[in-house]
Write a structure and sequence with these properties.
alpha+beta, Jelly Rolls, 2 domains, seven-stranded mixed sheet, six-stranded antiparallel sheet, 3 helices, 13 strands, 24% helix, globular
Length: 246
């Protein structure tokens, strides 16, 4: 009987230890799931670290508030209007012997979100011009990433991301008007004419590569369609411009 009792005690001790282990195991799983849930809530409610920073909304209200800059010497201003499709709002730019841009002062932390993402389309391009010369320095669509490096706009540095009508993707050169702005081809009508295309570039790396600047924060972005040098006409669309961590 004593042996039977010991056996029963051993059994219940084993069962008790087993239950403790199982309880610990399930409690650990429960806490891990709770932690995952909290992280999910933080990110979906915007309390976590931002992985994307949208720059433009392309609404009538925003269009009326953007800083419009006509290029000196241009005969006309580019005509900008907003519209929408199944993917959201877009900006339409018609430049007929015209040149003016839309600027927005916005702080972008390039340590967190160094990549610019642009969705755009060229309906009518500027074929046959030499874009890296003064007489042909026109682009149906371009987006400037701007860093203030002095007291005046002329001292600023920029990477000018362009949708080229003549050069291949990856081609780059200083602006024929100033070495403080680099033209970088992110898309070309040689590959995509009259169709939407989404592109991406590491802005932080480009400022280091082309300007030898370690830029932690951008100061603004500008959109422009210009044909004042070639005296031609272009039609372009911009949509969903944002910065991301990768």
């Amino acid at each position: 009987m004593f042996n039977k009792l010991n056996t029963n005690i051993d059994f219940w001790m084993f069962k008790s230890c087993q239950n403790n282990v199982l309880t610990f195991f399930f409690n650990k799983i429960y806490m891990i799931n709770i932690f995952k849930f909290i992280i999910l809530i933080l990110f979906t409610t915007g309390l976590g670290q931002a992985s994307e920073v949208k720059v433009f909304d392309f609404t009538e209200k925003e269009l009326s508030e953007l800083d419009v800059r006509k290029v000196r010497g241009a005969d006309n201003k580019t005509l900008y209007t907003v519209g929408s499709n199944e993917n959201g709002n877009f900006l339409k730019a018609v430049a007929d012997n015209a040149a003016s841009g839309l600027g927005k002062e916005v702080k972008i932390d390039l340590n967190k979100t160094p990549f610019i993402n642009i969705t755009w389309k060229i309906e009518k391009d500027l074929g046959g011009i030499k874009e890296n010369t003064k007489k042909g320095h026109d682009f149906a669509a371009r987006v400037f990433a701007v860093k203030k490096t002095g007291a005046t706009p002329l001292s600023n540095r920029a990477i000018n991301y362009v949708f080229s009508s003549n050069n291949e993707i990856g081609f780059n050169s200083p602006s024929p008007y100033t070495k403080k702005s680099i033209d970088y081809v992110l898309a070309s009508t040689k590959n995509n004419l009259n169709e939407w295309v989404t592109v991406k570039a590491n802005v932080k790396e480009h400022f280091k590569k082309f300007h030898n600047l370690d830029v932690n924060e951008l100061d603004g972005l500008a959109i422009m369609s210009d044909t004042d040098n070639s005296k031609m006409k272009s039609v372009a669309y911009f949509q969903n411009i944002y910065f991301s961590e990768r």
